[in-house]
Amino acid sequence: MKHIVITLVGADRTGIVENVSSLIFKFNGNWLASNLSKMAGQFAGIIEIMIPDENLEGFETELTKLKGLRCIVNEEANIKNDAEDRRVSISIVGNDKPGIIQEVTSAINHAGANVVKLQSVCESAPNWGGELFKADILISLPAELDIDDVTDNLEAIANDLVVEINLK
């Protein structure tokens, strides 16, 4: 069995996920994990699967024939056991302005942590007269990293950004 990760990007339309899942099933693959999303009319997804070695070439050929999707198959998937890593959630709320994500992710990176998942949105803040920026970030901390290092880095930028940052 081959452990692979598929990346898909294209204009959103009905049936994308069903088409991909049908191909995985057709070639005796097993869907292990995924992260699929639609934004601004575009579809993006990452899917982790196991597939028999002898079926991989046929699967890749069929996958690239899916209309309107760019597909990348990574056969060198780096499957690392993250059991020793700790996960911490960060929420950010504040007036929107350029650079919030850059500053926050830089602080996380320089502390030695890794962004695992990031979801953000700007929405109208009628009481404030502008856009309100919100983000939820899941980070992974290696066993040897002290959470205080991340906290200190984030607290150092929170006032400059005029945002509220909470770790959970």
CATH topology of the largest domain: Alpha-Beta Plaits
Named CATH architecture of the largest domain: 2-Layer Sandwich
Radius of gyration: 20 Å
The largest sheet, given as strand count, sense and whether it forms a barrel, is:
4 strands, antiparallel
- Percent of residues in helices comes to 25-40%
Structural commentary:
- The chain is an alpha+beta fold and 168 residues long.
- The protein folds into two domains: 2-74, Alpha-Beta Plaits; 82-167, Alpha-Beta Plaits (2-Layer Sandwich), CATH 3.30.70.260.
- The chain is 28% helix and 45% strand.
- It contains four helices and eight strands; from the N terminus they run βαββαββαββαβ.
- It has helices at residues 16-26, 56-64, 100-111, 147-161; strands spanning 2-11, 30-39, 42-51, 69-74, 86-95, 114-125, 130-141, 163-167.
- Strands 2-3-1-4 form a four-stranded antiparallel beta sheet, with helices on one face.
- The longest helix has 15 residues, at 147-161.
List the main descriptive attributes of the protein structure presented here:
45% strand, 28% helix, Alpha-Beta Plaits, 168 residues, alpha+beta, four-stranded antiparallel beta sheet
How would you summarize what this structure contains?
By secondary structure, the protein is of the alpha+beta class. It has helices spanning 16-26, 56-64, 100-111, 147-161; strands at residues 2-11, 30-39, 42-51, 69-74, 86-95, 114-125, 130-141, 163-167.
